[in-house]
Specification:
The structure is a single chain. The chain is α/β, with parallel strands linked by helices. It is 41% helix and 17% strand. An eight-stranded parallel beta barrel has the order 1-2-3-4-5-6-7-8, surrounded by six helices. Helix 3 packs parallel to helix 5, helix 5 (104-117) packs parallel to helix 6 and helix 6 (135-147) crosses helix 7. The mean pLDDT is 97. Catalyzes a reversible aldol reaction between acetaldehyde and D-glyceraldehyde 3-phosphate to generate 2-deoxy-D-ribose 5-phosphate.
Length: 220
């Protein structure tokens, strides 16, 4: 296993606060902590936008969160509003039923609708809720994401009862996108060992709410 430094891991962290009861004060604290830890971004609910951040810290938000079970045009409108409110990155939740029912053309169309609503340079990450899918559906959802123009595929919301990120899912996703897209591991990663395992499996971004605890387990 390759050694990963605290600084290296910090620069791929989306420091995240998506609890529905989160307050503006808590978001401000999140920003301050992310800056102190030298994280890549903060990820907050769209209702918290706009968020003031120091130079070098990016702003991400979520769309269709956490269920994904809304119409594509609603997700697209939500994404467009988020970008107008200052989001640089959008993490959208797929309609999981489309993947379960193997309606991957419809899934691709949904993702494309959001992509068109937040074109580059906005970064689009597609949350496929991997713990709720079998391997074939994970692969197909990743392919649909790539075909629709996404920049990343992401394992999980962290809110689904099936669970969060797994090394198996991250490796499968990374193998499927072959470096053409990023892979974000999110959900249940609470210590340095788990974070490094995800990176070793192919994750290029980490969604963490326990960023300080994870980084405390690493050395420079």
């Amino acid at each position: 296993m390759t050694a990963h430094t605290r600084a290296e891991i910090a620069r791929i962290i989306d420091h995240t606060l998506l609890k529905p009861e989160a307050t503006g004060v808590q978001v401000a604290d999140l920003v301050a902590e992310a800056a102190r830890l030298n994280c890549y971004s903060v990820c907050v609910s769209p209702s918290q936008l706009p968020v003031e951040v120091p130079e070098g810290l990016h702003v991400a938000t979520v769309v269709g969160f956490p269920s994904g079970a809304v119409k594509p045009e609603i997700k697209a409108a939500e994404a467009a509003r988020a970008v107008s409110d200052g989001a640089e990155e959008v993490d959208m939740v797929i309609n999981i039923a489309l993947a379960k029912e193997k309606r991957f053309d419809d899934l691709e169309a949904e993702i494309r609708a959001v992509r068109e609503a937040c074109p580059a340079p906005v970064v689009l990450k597609v949350i496929i809720e991997s713990a709720a899918l079998d391997d074939d559906a994970i692969v197909a959802a990743c392919r649909a994401s790539e075909a629709a123009g996404a920049d990343f595929v992401k394992t999980s919301t962290g809110f689904h009862p099936a669970g969060g990120a797994s090394v198996h899912a991250v490796k499968l996703m990374a193998d499927t996108v072959g470096g053409r897209l990023g892979v974000k591991a999110s959900g249940g990663i609470r210590n340095a060992k788990d974070a490094v395992a995800m990176v070793e499996a192919g994750a290029t971004r980490l969604g963490l709410s326990s960023s300080a605890a994870v980084l405390d387990g690493l050395t420079d």
